[in-house]
Write a sequence for this structure.
């Protein structure tokens, strides 16, 4: 398999004006500008194979969008090298963008006041698609994304889910080799999310499209991506498969208990008995239902179960695996501690 | 080039369809422009009924220059109005990204996207005023001066467009450059009157810096008075070409500096 995407030591710096608060500060900054250099993306490298779906994740402000914008040729990196589909995005932009598709979930590229079909007519011209190829393509997208019911409605009247399907279709009309999906399921309800995920999976399967997906919804990742790259504060903090990450950053397990009496939970002392403290344990109580999350590398599930059952009376008890959200939260926490220890090296006074 | 026109046609067809969606808006826009122009003419009429001559120019000559100025302004307004949106909010709101993910030159894309039909009001007023003034003044139109006049409309339009491109390009650095552009654009109002009424500082500025004098007074003065055609049209063409080149260079630098916005 060849590498479709190669990212080598890429950084992006922005100059940021520091403003003192209030009107006085604003006026002051008009005359005396204090700026600092912010490294939005800091020396990131990774590769993506052809046909792979890569989950690109990180908290808000981690530099995800900046990275995606460099990959799509919108921004020029301050340093480093990007080669996608044999081209440098920001150098040969016009040629490069012919073979990629981009969806920014929070913005639409559809013509707002016109029927959806008109957007496709314009895109057909923009990408110079032959009539026959265009028809085939529309048939395929119709089948995958089910556009038929609203293709003649003005875009402004579409629901968010319909609009997102339409936007994905619009980004796929020219049969791109690489597809960038920035938050494609944002704001959608569960059923619609599921449909979109299925469509993305099908596109990837049928067309061998390489897909880079950024999302906050970790179910997207779990269902679509085998591999993830996680960035935080501009730096790559993880690159590998999902299962491996779960192991590396602790396997959190959950025990769901339905109590007979509310305050029974206080009779349990996991700290004393198993040495589970701080991040390794979390107890949430909602009425008579309690959820105990704990790090299974520190204590055995069976030991906890027998301890609980022998100490209190329970109506019901079940064991589950904690979701990836929990793991990522823990990973972020770990990094934050790192940051405070080393200080913020990225900010430089200019 | 063929591709450009095909694409343009597609965009224009979309625009027309959009216009049909918002007929009331279009009619209001066109009417308000017409009303604005009429008010202006009434204003000029009132002033000139008091002062029949302005630096040797009589009423209909002033009307001719005024009408002349509206033609390139109107043509530019018709074709490049989207640049205002770039200057005011397309960049600031982060919607400029779209233009960079399409296989079209971003500047052409921005321009192609909008035909501002409101401008037809301006254009029509200009032409009507020129016709009325020409009849009253008994201007003798020959092939030569008509050709030069069309040339002047062309470079006049280029001057307007270049200033708007440069103004919009600033937004690529500072996010919102609408008010800066407006300051420069407003100075085109000076071009509606004979430049001889201004002092030399203003005259030099509107001749060489923001050369709006070439969009109306200089070419019109040739038609009216036979002023030096080399200066009126030759220098005009050269200045327009230089200005457009500089504007495009600035725009391209802006694209490289562009930092996008939001997520």
């Amino acid at each position: 398999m060849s590498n479709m995407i190669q990212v080598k030591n890429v950084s992006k710096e922005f100059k940021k004006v520091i403003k003192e608060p209030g009107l006085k500060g604003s006026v002051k900054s008009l005359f005396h500008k204090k700026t600092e250099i912010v490294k939005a993306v800091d020396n990131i490298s990774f590769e993506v194979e052809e046909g792979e779906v890569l989950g690109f994740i990180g908290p808000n402000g981690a530099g995800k969008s900046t990275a995606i914008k460099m990959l799509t040729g919108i921004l020029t990196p301050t340093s480093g090298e990007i080669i996608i589909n044999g081209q440098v995005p920001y150098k040969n932009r016009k040629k490069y963008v012919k073979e990629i598709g981009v969806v920014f979930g929070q913005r639409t590229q559809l013509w707002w006041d016109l029927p959806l079909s008109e957007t496709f007519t314009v895109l057909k011209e923009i990408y110079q698609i032959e009539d026959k190829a265009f028809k085939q393509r529309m048939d395929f997208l119709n089948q995958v994304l089910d556009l038929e019911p609203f293709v003649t409605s003005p875009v402004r009247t579409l629901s968010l889910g319909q609009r997102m399907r339409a936007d994905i279709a619009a980004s796929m009309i020219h049969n791109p080799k690489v597809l960038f999906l920035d938050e494609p399921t944002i704001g959608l309800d569960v059923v619609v999310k599921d449909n979109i995920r299925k469509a993305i999976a099908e596109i990837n399967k049928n067309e061998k499209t390489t897909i880079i997906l950024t999302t906050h919804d970790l179910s997207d990742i779990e269902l679509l991506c085998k591999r993830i790259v996680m960035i935080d504060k501009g730096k790559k903090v993880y690159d590998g498969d999902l299962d491996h990450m779960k192991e590396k950053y602790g396997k959190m397990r959950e025990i769901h208990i339905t109590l007979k009496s509310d305050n029974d939970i206080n009779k349990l002392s996991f700290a004393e008995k198993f040495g589970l403290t701080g991040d390794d344990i979390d107890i949430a109580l909602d009425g008579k239902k309690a959820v105990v999350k704990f790090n299974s590398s520190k204590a055995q599930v069976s030991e906890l179960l027998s301890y609980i059952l022998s100490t209190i009376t329970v109506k019901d008890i079940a064991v589950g695996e904690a979701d990836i959200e929990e793991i990522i939260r823990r990973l972020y926490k770990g990094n934050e501690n790192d940051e405070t220890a080393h200080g913020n090296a990225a900010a430089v006074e200019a | 080039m063929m591709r450009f026109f095909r694409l343009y046609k597609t965009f224009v067809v979309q625009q027309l369809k959009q216009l049909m969606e918002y007929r009331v808006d279009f009619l209001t826009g066109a009417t308000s422009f017409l009303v604005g122009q009429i008010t202006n003419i009434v204003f000029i009429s009132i002033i000139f009924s008091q002062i029949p001559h302005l630096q040797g120019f009589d009423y209909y000559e002033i009307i001719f220059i005024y009408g002349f100025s509206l033609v390139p302004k109107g043509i530019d307004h018709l074709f490049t109005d989207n640049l205002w949106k770039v200057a005011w909010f397309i960049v600031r709101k982060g919607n400029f990204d779209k233009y960079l993910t399409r296989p079209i030159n971003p500047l052409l894309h921005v321009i192609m996207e909008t035909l501002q039909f409101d401008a037809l009001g301006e254009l029509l007023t200009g032409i009507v005023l020129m016709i009325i003034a020409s009849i009253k003044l008994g201007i003798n139109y020959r092939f030569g001066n008509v050709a030069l006049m069309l040339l002047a409309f062309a470079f006049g339009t280029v001057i307007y467009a270049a200033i708007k491109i440069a103004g919009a390009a600033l937004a690529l650095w500072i996010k919102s450059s609408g008010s800066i552009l407006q300051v420069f654009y407003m100075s085109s109002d000076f071009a509606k009157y004979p430049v001889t009424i201004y002092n030399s500082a203003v005259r030099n500025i509107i001749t060489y810096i923001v050369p709006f004098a070439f969009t109306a007074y200089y070419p019109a003065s040739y038609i009216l008075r036979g002023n030096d055609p080399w200066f009126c049209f030759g220098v005009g063409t050269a200045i327009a070409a230089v200005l457009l080149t500089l504007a495009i260079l600035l725009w391209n630098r802006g694209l490289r500096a562009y930092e996008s916005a939001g997520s």
